Amino acid sequence: MYEAKILVVGCPAAGKTSLIHKAVNNQMTSEYKPTIGVDFAQKQFVINDEKVMLQLWDIAGQDFYSKLVHVYYKNAIGCILTCDFSNDHIIQDIKMWYDEIRSKALLKNGVPVPIYLACNKIDIPKAKQMMEDEGIKMELQNFQFAHQGFTSALTGEGVTEMLTFVAEETIKVAKNAGSEKDKLNAVIIQDDKAKKSGCC
């Protein structure tokens, strides 16, 4: 089985924690409570008969300016950048975290971790309008995202698809690492058969 540390970042109230709760427990948090420091959840996927466990690290939006926030990035293999797509400052919010992750969340070979953009809260009418805004579409093209998806932690729309894509990409990274595996050192490959043959 593959295990991968995935960062989940974004500005306060972007819906990071709600997105994770929906993905992992199929539940929606009804009351906004800001994450303090970092929270943690796991979600297992089976992709073409191969198991992958995503370790989702929910980084508090308030920690952006903390000197210690980069400590959470160590050994990450990907990042889900969550944004409130009904926010008028959507591009500024995205750029702030995008630049942060690209410069500080690196694989062991120095390459930035892939960033998956979750355009969240599309259940809000204003967010749907923003989805059709040609100016925003053009500005989003200036970023190098591994994937861009539209999600709603309230309805669940797009959430499973987003996490499934991340899981698929994680397996690809692990398989393509080859001689670079030791350098990447971000995916832990566990041999299920070896586990079963061990002592109880």
TrEMBL record:
GO terms for molecular function: GTP binding; GTPase activity. GO terms for cellular component: late endosome; lysosome; phagocytic vesicle. It holds the Pfam family Ras. GO terms for biological process: endosome to lysosome transport; phagosome-lysosome fusion. InterPro entries: P-loop_NTPase, Small_GTP-bd, Small_GTPase. Keywords: GTP-binding, Nucleotide-binding. It comes from the Eukaryota. Belongs to the small GTPase superfamily. Rab family. This is Rab1a.
